[in-house]
Amino acid sequence: xxxxxxxxxxxxxxxxxxxxxxxxxxxxxxxxxxxxxxxxxxxxxxxxxxxxxxxxxxxxxxxxxxxxxxxxxxxxxxxxxxxxxxxxxxxxxxxxxxxxxxxxxxxxxxxxxxxxxxxxxxxxxxxxxxxxxxxxxxxxxxxxxxxxxxxxxxxxxxxxxxx
Length: 163
Ligand SMILES: [Mn+2]
Fold this sequence. Notes:
It holds the Pfam family Metallophos_2. The chain has helices spanning about 15-20, 40-45, 95-105, and strands spanning about 1-5, 30-35, 55, 70-75, 80-85, 110, 120, 125-130, 145-150, 155-160. It is an alpha/beta fold. Manganese (II) ion binds near residues 36, 59 and 61.
């Protein structure tokens, strides 16, 4: 199963469009948006309707809405993915709290955003940050992630940077 991971689009539906038109986005069956901001995730769901599912959480720049989720657990291809923006787990300093929360939720993958800096860390828990698709701090252009997930296998993750 091909999963697309995106975060921190901060109102740029243009960045979402650019991501969707990238060849790496082809065949994505599930998109995860790690927050900032939820209307972008709703836009993503609208434009991929019938092709992909979208799961998302709220970030620190999201106006708290009734029913807004800050953490979610997504089950896919025999894996459990802990999805959160990260601002409540101190991710600017360390992902230890994030990994602890993911482990307590029985997850083998943790996805976060917030820092606008991409990360792929493998270990007991695979830790993923797609960077910001619109306002990166680590590169000039935005980035997102694609992940191939198969039951009983370690996830194969690829960071996609816009040229
Ligand atoms: Mn944020």
